[in-house]
Amino acid sequence: MFYISKITPIFFVLGYIDLIFSLVYKVNNNIQFLGLILVYGFIFNVILGGLYQIVPNSQSQKLNFPTFSYIVFLISLLADISFFINNDLLIFSTLKFTSIFAFFLHIFHVIKIIKPLTIRFIITGIFYMILSILFLNAYLFWNIATYQFSIHIFTVGVMTNLIIGVLFTWIPMLTMQVLNLNLANKFYYIYQVAIFIFFVAFFVRDYNLVFFSGLVLFLVVLFYLYIIYDSVFKDKKVIFLPVVVKYFLSGWIFFLFGILTILSIILLNRFDLILLHIDFMVYGFGFLILSGAILHLVPRIIWNWFYQEKVKLGKNVPSIHELVNEKFALTFLYFFPPFLLFVVFLDFLGLFLVSVSLMFVFYVCFLILSFYKILKFVFY
Q1: For residue 167, is it within any domain?
Q2: Could you give the CA distance from residue 271 to residue 275 in angstroms, rounded to a whole number?
Q3: Handedness of CA 101, 104, 109, 115 (dihedral sign)
């Protein structure tokens, strides 16, 4: 069974729009607004879209009342619109809380099997999603904790839990290798302990503890990458790496750079350079990993969605891999590391207008040239 979530591509589009509009706040070096729209806009919408597709299929279940997902989307859309129009953070956080709560009620009845490793990561990520939005509202309404605390619960607790869990399935599957489940199961518990220490450090605002917990997190992620290496590459002959797998692996390199950047910022007491951390973590790691997931999911959704109708009309149906421009996507990936390093250098110099202009052109070209074939196929 392949369940088709028709709302998923729409969530992805909204996420990319948030990513592009975030550049408005970056050019003004407005770190608070930038962090909020990147995390609760770009990352939030892409994750919700992905979960609407991944969770039902992981359970071999159809989602009841699929039209309700459009209500969840509409609430998130209204939150983003309110943010861009008047920067009303209270309305924004309230609507995002409503969207998450509605999503939780809608999706959780599908989950019947919780033993698989990926499902445990997903359930843990959804738990932290609720916790993150609760703390964001607690900060904005009652000044409890900080907005940085809620943001890091989302990035480290939600995004990375979901990414790690899903990639533990996708990377071995796409490379036709077998995951080392013994190590992967141990990693689940090690990672949860590591991020709990990280969250405590942010909650108590002890930057010495943040430094220590960040260093632990760095080592734990290296352990995760070793598990991928042990499962996919160790003692194996040269294997074919699909484009999306190259996106996933490249993204984790920027995650490591992002941790090293924040550790350096804390060590040198240069919190004026926090934008460099955001460059690596969101515009680098988040963008590559989530774009890789989108490149993997969207063609399969569209192909299954329109396949039968095209066959009935007697039209030839292209293969899934023909629906995206994989050649350009790969070329883009090769140019991306030096491009992002140049952007980080520009931001270090304070040349935000130049870096934002380059990022706008780069990201828009990526979207148009990578996905135009899908639109051509849908309306053909």
Answers
A1: no
A2: 9
A3: negative
Q: Please, which contacts does 351-360 make with residues 24 or more away whose CB atoms are closer than 8 Å?
A: 352/26, 352/27, 352/28, 352/29, 353/27, 355/26, 356/23, 356/26, 356/27, 359/23, 359/26, 359/283, 360/20, 360/23
Range of the domain at 81: 1-112
SS (H, E, C) 353-371: HHHHHHHHHHHHHHHHHHH
Tell me the per-residue pLDDT of 203-249, one tens digit each, with 9 for 90 and over.
998 999 999 999 999 999 999 999 999 998 887 765 788 999 999 99
Q: Cα–Cα distance between 173 and 54 in angstroms, integer?
A: 15
Give the C-alpha separation, 150 to 155, whole Å.
9
Q: Kindly state whether residue 51 falls inside one of the protein's structural domains.
A: yes
Asked if 183 contacts 143 with a C-beta cutoff of 8 angstroms, the reply is no
Give CA–CA dist 47/60, Å, rounded.
Answer: 20
Rounded CA gap, 138 and 133, in Å? 8
> Amino acid identity of 176?
M
**Would the pTM of this model clear 0.70, i.e. be above it?**
yes
Count of domains observed in the chain: 1
Low-confidence ranges of the chain (pLDDT < 50): none
Asked whether residue 367 is domain-assigned, the answer is no
Q: Is position 93 within any domain?
A: yes
How far is 374 from 368, CA to CA, in rounded Å?
10
User: For residues 29 and 43, what is the distance between their CA atoms, to the nearest angstrom?
Assistant: 20
* Alpha-carbon dihedral sign for residues 275, 280, 282, 284: positive
